[in-house]
Amino acid sequence: MLLKSSKSLTTPFLFLFVSLHQTFSHPTVTNHTWQEAFEVLGIAWNPDGTLNRTILIPMVDPTPDADSEPTPIALSQDIYLSPYSKAYVRLYIPVDPPRDRKLPLIIYFHGGDFVLYSASTAIFHNFCNDIASQFPAVVVSVEYRLAPENRLPAAYDDALNGVAWVRDQALGKGGSDPWMEYADFSRVFLLGSSAGGNIAYHVALRVLDFDIRPLQIKGLLLNQAYFGGLKRTQSEIRLIDDPYVPLYINDVLWSLALPKNVNRDHEFCNPISGGTYLGRVFRLPKVYIKGDFGDPLVDRSVLLAQYLQSCGVPVYYRFNPGGGHGNELGNRTAAQQLYDDMRWFVNDLHSNLNSGDVLSSLKSEDQSSDHASY
């Protein structure tokens, strides 16, 4: 099931041993301690260097039966990828999938800043339910290992193994799951929210090393993708004390997620700073990028959209005034707009989406009150 390449895909298992009183300073950043950040995140160190995630996050079981209570809007099941690990995918199909056509296949990577949450977390489970039922589509939500117990690139490796499982399903290796008969393996899309958007982007670049036929990855959907860098963007400074992603929390999360002894200009964090895969960006398929100007991370998405366009990648985008990080998870109007955009993108209805030069478009919309001037 594993994808093989001449490139090493080692998974460092490194722990972070730092003082809880270490502080972060920047000309525009108020000093905060690691202990303060950990309390906000609901995490604490265990003696062995792992994290105790104390925050209570609702988790849900899959609903493989249409007769489940409450009545599901989509069916789901968990499929373990190996008897020797906890790796699994949660597979979704509509309750009544069409018999006259194949459905697009969405491979989804959940958010959580690489440190928190799971494919079975309720908000992400509900998100996948909506996609499976509204598009309609077959959705494969990939569980991946979390940092700091498993620092990047561990999540990328697990995501690649999820793609390998889908490829093996297409090839009938080891017996295909009956639900995958509804999937169109020639219309595969990688979708990620927040950290999942980061994963989708890096997996799209890494998978170029492999033969994944008969899969055809037709596009990427990056929703508020989690990227960063050493130099602060104007949106990070403007929203330094954001209630959802304050800058000091963001710095701590990157320190937990990145390989040890690297900074935020590492390619895993800053995708346009250089690195192993930068030279193959022009080979990416079309990309949909969504951001909100109430999100401190929005400038990172604008910069990525601009860079991809400069490399000749077809980019479609929506940058909303206001909003915030993860707003679609608690705002049905925002969620429906995102679903509509993604459905148009998947079904090649591009006239409904923005696709011109991103900087010119933002300036023409006169959103200077909502975001930094580019």
- SSE pattern: HEEEEEHEHEHEHHEHEHH
Alpha-carbon distance between the termini?
45 Å
- Please report the total strand number as a whole number: 10
Strand content: 15-25%
Shape: globular
Number of helices, where a helix is a run of at least 4 consecutive DSSP H or I residues: 9
Name the structural class: alpha/beta
Q: Give the fraction of residues assigned to helices.
A: 25-40%
Q: Kindly identify the CATH topology.
A: Rossmann fold
The pLDDT mean sits at 89
CATH homology superfamily name: Alpha/Beta hydrolase fold, catalytic domain
Name given to the CATH architecture: 3-Layer(aba) Sandwich
Uncertain ranges: 4-28, 368-374
Rg computed from alpha carbons, rounded to a whole number of angstroms = 20 Å
Q: What spatial order of strands do you see in the largest sheet?
A: 3-4-6-5-7-8-9-10
Largest sheet: 8 strands, mixed
Signal peptide: 1-25
Protein name: Arylacetamide deacetylase
EC number: 3.1.1.1
Keywords: Hydrolase, Signal
